[in-house]
Amino acid sequence: MGGSLTVPSVPALSYSSFRTYQECPLRWRFLYVEKLPEAPRGYFTFGRVIHSVLEELVAPLVVPSARRAGESDRQRTLDEWHVRSSTPTPVRWMSSEELLAAYERAWSSEGYTSPEEESRYRALGREILLRYYEFLVRDRPVPVAVEEHLEARWDGIPIHGYIDRIDRTPAGGLEIVDYKTSRDLSNDDARDSDQLSLYQVLVESNYAEPVQGLTLYHLRSLTPLRTAPRERGALAGLHDRLGSALDGIRAEAFEPAPGRHCARCDFQDRCPEFRAVPTADGERLRSLVDRFEALRAEEGRLESELRRTAEELHRAAEELGVHRVPGSRTVAVRRREEAWQYSLDSVRPLLERSGLASRVSSGTPEDVRKLVRDPTVDPEVRRKVAETASRRVKWYWELEAGPSES
């Protein structure tokens, strides 16, 4: 864990980078600062292959759209926009056979746990691609970009991302499409997706047309889960969380955050949550832990005994009518804490009729007592409010030095 870090002063956050830091800052450091590799996993490999083939399939349909000239913190003028040609170049779209050939070329065996698992995924990929191909033949999209890398500064926060597809809508705006090869998705996943929210900001920062729709496309079921673009207020929460992550990265706050995700982490041998104590230090630290355990148990016993003794002293002092009880070396002095509480529900209509409700809207005893003592307030109102009061008294003991022995 030692050694100096080289953290970019203002690292650009992608969705995956942001999600990693939220999940575990230490894993973010391992991945993005120390650049440590993770073990390949078959489902990630499968997703990459499918995305790659779909990019090759849809790319001939792209009709580029108006783009911003560049990102900066200042307001842009009309002269700073440029439009790429909207005239499509005639191309021959690949056949289903060519699609499967592209799939075979792109296939990777990396990360699968067995030949059987790889075979199941490979067959699933063919099925997904052929079914999706048939769907596209019937209803071709109008993409303006595929696998588009976009960058922006979102109110001072640098962000970037690779967007699977940006389509032209019938109304002339843009729809963001993100392919998903996962097993299950719901409409809630689309509505709550931080990834789609971040992509909306990126597209709005780089394209002239408005974003009119967001879609998670579930490839296994050929289901587009569509949702409306986010309102400004809905994006504010994501902006705050991105800012918090960026602040933590700048401050090099890379403490581990244990959770269920630890089971799939490749860096347990480097993480203090899982790293074993060296054998040479085991005996010394074991004795410290045992001592700590014993002291904690003693602390609990003493707290309980202290509480019982204080209660017994209080009862005796109440019976005798005294506040100072001498011991052999010190004097126990009984002190009192007083707290007032008011229940205003019964008088709230009266306060509202009198125009005084706003003065006690906080409900704090201090505000209520100020009103009760205010001579400019109707005495009847003050009396009724005062009658809702209840006093709570708490007694406690302090020790003072006893008289010096001669």
Structure characterization notes:
It is flat, with a radius of gyration of 34 Å. It is of the alpha+beta class. It is built from 12 helices and 10 strands. Strand 4 and strand 5 form a beta hairpin. The strands form 3 sheets. It has a 5-stranded mixed β-sheet with strand order 3-4-5-6-7, with helices on both faces. A 3-stranded antiparallel β-sheet has the order 8-9-10, covered by helices on one side. It folds into 3 domains: 256 residues, Lambda Exonuclease, Chain A; 42 residues; 84 residues, no CATH class.
Write down the domain tally. 3
Number of helices: 12
Radius of gyration: 34 Å
Helix content: 40-55%
Q: What structural class results from the helix and strand content?
A: alpha+beta
Give the rounded overall mean pLDDT: 88
CATH architecture of the largest domain: Alpha-Beta Complex
Query: pLDDT below 50 for ≥5 consecutive residues: which ranges?
Result: 71-86
Strand portion:
15-25%
CATH class of the largest domain: Alpha Beta
Shape category: flat
Strand order of the largest sheet: 3-4-5-6-7
| Major β-sheet profile | 5 strands, mixed
* Order of helix and strand elements from N to C terminus: HHHEEHHEEEHHEEHHEEHHHE
Number of strands: 10
What is the CATH fold-level name of the largest domain?
Lambda Exonuclease, Chain A
Q: Distance between the terminal alpha carbons, to the nearest Å?
A: 61 Å
